[in-house]
Amino acid sequence: MQNSPQRRDRFLRVSEKRRKKAIEAIGAINSLSASHYKFEKEEIVNLFSSLYAALDKGWLTFTLKGVSEKEKLEFLFDREISQYEQIKKSDPALYTELKNNLSANVTAYIEKKENDSSSNKLSLDVLKDLEAVIHHKISDGLDKIDSQMKEFEYQLYRQTEKVSYLVEQTEKKLK
Predict the structure, then answer these.
(1) Is the pTM of this model over 0.85?
(2) What are the structural domain ranges in the chain?
(3) Residue 103, SS3?
(4) Which pLDDT tens digits describe the chain residue by residue (175 residues)?
């Protein structure tokens, strides 16, 4: 059996390769958002829900062996907070909207995590419904973004049609 430093080195080497492959695979899934694919909202929700479920299973299996249910819940909330941090970096307006629409308990939890990186001791009762609220609010935010994107695509299409018409009229006048 290998000694501990060798096992550690092997873990670092193998985990980095697998992490890169997973990120590439997610990138391939993200490319399905291109305009040459047609999809329904429910299909996207199911797709990403299955990815989240696989990640949650990994987090729980990997990291939380032998810890209490409360610690598992706090760990999952911390993961949710890391998602908020990503949204805050990539889409500050959506982040602000999420914070404005989350319950006071959720907002307090987020703010406490932002201000104090030490472990959070909010009661389990207060945090019980956090994940459902978060997913609901994110889904609403994504719906708004989707609606705005469709409006943008429609406006772009209209402008393209106008330009095509003007080019056609100009070519006729030049003949």
Answers:
(1) no
(2) 1-31, 67-174
(3) coil
(4) 457 889 889 989 999 999 999 999 999 999 988 888 888 888 998 998 899 888 878 877 776 677 887 887 777 777 777 888 888 888 889 888 887 777 666 667 667 766 664 444 445 545 656 666 777 778 778 888 888 888 888 888 888 888 888 888 888 888 7
